[in-house]
Amino acid sequence: MKLSEMKGELGCTGRRVQIWSAAGLLGKQAAPGTGTHREYDEREVERARVLNLLSDLGVTIGIQAKLIDHLLCDHKSRSVLEHLRQVTQSN
């Protein structure tokens, strides 16, 4: 998935994705000036989905870095994330 598609699906800005990538929370972006576009796989899109939710909740990038792997691998955490998604979408 290209950045523009991911931004549209998640409702986030390109700047957020750049920050997550620079912090090592998403895979590296294509080399600047090469004319190639970065493609994000489904795993990275799911990570971005969680990071975007955390950003919307005001969680700092440093805390996001500490939480992301735990939130994606633990079943109970995934249930909490799903609940947070529903709550934030209804507001």
What attributes characterize this protein structure?
91 residues; mainly alpha; Multidrug-efflux Transporter Regulator, Chain: A, Domain 2; 5 helices; 67% helix; 0% strand
CATH architectural group: Orthogonal Bundle
The SSE string, one letter per element, is: HHHHH
User: How many structural domains can be distinguished in the coordinates?
Assistant: 1
Radius of gyration from the alpha-carbon trace, in angstroms: 13 Å
**Share in β-strands:** under 5%
Name the poorly predicted regions.
none
Q: What's the CATH C level?
A: Mainly Alpha
Given the C-alpha coordinates, what overall shape results?
A: globular
- The beta-strand count equals 0
What is the averaged pLDDT score? 82
First-last Cα distance:
28 Å
Class by helix and strand content?
Answer: mainly alpha
Number of helices: 5
Describe the protein in words.
- There is one protein chain.
- With 91 residues, the protein is mainly alpha-helical.
- The protein has one domain (3-90): Multidrug-efflux Transporter Regulator, Chain: A, Domain 2 (Orthogonal Bundle), CATH 1.10.1660.
- It is built from five helices and no strands.
- The chain has helices at residues 3-10, 14-22, 42-56, 61-73, 75-90.
- Helix 3 packs across helix 4 and helix 4 packs across helix 5 (75-90).
- The model has no long low-confidence stretch (mean pLDDT 82).
